[in-house]
Design goal:
39% of the residues lie in helices and 13% in strands. It is of the alpha+beta class. It has a single domain, classed as Alpha-Beta Plaits. It has a 5-stranded antiparallel sheet with strand order 4-1-3-2-5, sandwiched between helices.
Amino acid sequence: MVHTPMRTPQKRFYIDEGLYFITAVTHGRHPFFQEPVFANLFVVDLWFACEVKEFRLYGYTVAGDHVHLLIQPFGSSNISDILGSLKRNVSRDLNDTIRNRPRTRISAGDDSNRPLPGNSETVRGNIEAMKSAHSNLNPMILERHFQLIHQLRTKYPKESKIGFRVMEFRWQKSFYDHIIRGERDFREHLDYIFGNAVKHKLTTAPADWRWMWVYGMDEPKEFR
């Protein structure tokens, strides 16, 4: 069922359980995601966002300066809610990692996807706050996500491959979305995601690109 055309300031249409192909780009096209730790952080946050914001993920790929997603919201969040939350959390995770910032207590109603590092009392308090705010989430998924974020933070910068000078991560404002119209359109965009890393000469074999997944492949358990 299609809603009565409802437009946001970005003139977006929201469709009940619609499928969307989405592209989000880094500010100034800076290739932050050439850094493996940063690409990993994005993917970890993306999988967790599926649980927090309730959407089905059919595919994603992460390139140096952009990401592509194929998603289907099924809960109360529309694509603007989903991308807003995801982009905020990725920005916070990357900038906390770059700056090695101490962890702080999250506030009530915060849609933060993880507790920030700190003493055990602060971490436990943040976990409990997340459980209260998102009672639908499996506690084991919460715990696992927090562990993954912590592991990635500890790998940077000692495992940095790029050696970026310290700067702030930012997204380009807004994002591009396309409503999927039928099976053929779905398959074409799934194939586009699958082959995107080859298109950008990041690999010679699509399935070898670690930061890509499409429906039908085994789920990347290392990020879940």
